[in-house]
Amino acid sequence: MDAAGDPWEIVKALTAWAERTPWCDWVELSGSLGRGAGDRVSDVDAGLGVLLDGVAYEERRDAALAAAREYAVVADELIQHLGSPERPSDHLVVQYADGRQLSLVVMPAQNRPGLAPGSQPVFDRSGRLAQPFAPSALHATAEQRREWAFLGWWGLADVAKHAGRGRVWRALESLHEVRTYVWQLHAAELGVDYPAFGAVSVQNAGLPEPAGLAATLPVAAEPAEVIATARALADVLEPLAAPHSVDGARAEARRRLAAA
């Protein structure tokens, strides 16, 4: 990318627009740029808090998207609706023609009580981001960890079922889902922030993958190969799931894999 493709120029443009827009209360920067680990191919992960003052939230959101279209030539865009009528929030995803990407979450300013770990304030009109804030996703609950463990074994049983039927691509999808649960459990075990993001959170923290994970990548889309890698993945899952009382799901998955 040349200088025109510097993602920090998008950050500067967003910040300047917020500063001159009275109803913009704060802008936070997260992702790799927010952690100080970004590079020239990083997308801009940001949050924007808007003051409504009697104006419909949708009007503020649309104005934020209109402004984002001016930061560079737009190639494509998407709005993802994240919130609820009571707590609206939208994800504005903008692909610029020069390769840069903006991932901007817009919400009413009062819905964010402070600054979450891994983010930095780039504009804070009212000081709302001065206090630390621990979102519910920062750590995994015991219930979440048990769910990941249960679904991991359940998914391995599905791998055996689909492979046995010759439905290799369904088996591979289930295998990948189980690998995701393994990453989430591993992240929670390591105590990293946002364990639900699995591999992303572990690698962002500079920590190693679960032992034996490389053996869970099949080298061919063949039932026997998928079953072999599923057995390897079961061995990786075993110590991670053991503390979470999912013996019934484990027993069935092990039985199916042994019989396959």
Give a concise summary:
The protein contains eight helices and six strands; from the N terminus they run αβαβαββββααααα. The protein has 260 residues and is α+β, with helices and mostly antiparallel strands.
Description:
The protein has 260 residues and is of the alpha+beta class. It has 2 domains: 3-134, Beta Polymerase, domain 2, CATH 3.30.460; 138-259, Four Helix Bundle (Hemerythrin (Met), subunit A), CATH 1.20.120. Helices cover 43% and strands 16% of the residues. The chain has 8 helices and 6 strands; from the N terminus they run αβαβαββββααααα. The chain has a 6-stranded mixed β-sheet with strand order 3-4-5-2-1-6. α4 runs antiparallel to α7 (223-241), α4 runs parallel beside α8 (247-259) and α5 (168-190) runs parallel beside α7. The longest helix has 23 residues, at 142-164. The chain is elongated.
Features:
single chain; 260 residues; alpha+beta; Beta Polymerase, domain 2; Four Helix Bundle (Hemerythrin (Met), subunit A); 2 domains; 6-stranded mixed sheet; 16% strand; elongated
Strand-helix topology:
Elements: H1 7-19, E1 24-30, H2 31-34, E2 44-50, H3 57-68, E3 74-81, E4 90-96, E5 101-108, E6 120-124, H4 142-164, H5 168-190, H6 199-204, H7 223-241, H8 247-259
Parallel strand pairs: 2-5
Antiparallel strand pairs: 1-2, 1-6, 3-4, 4-5
Helix pairs in contact: 4-5, 4-7, 4-8, 5-7, 7-8
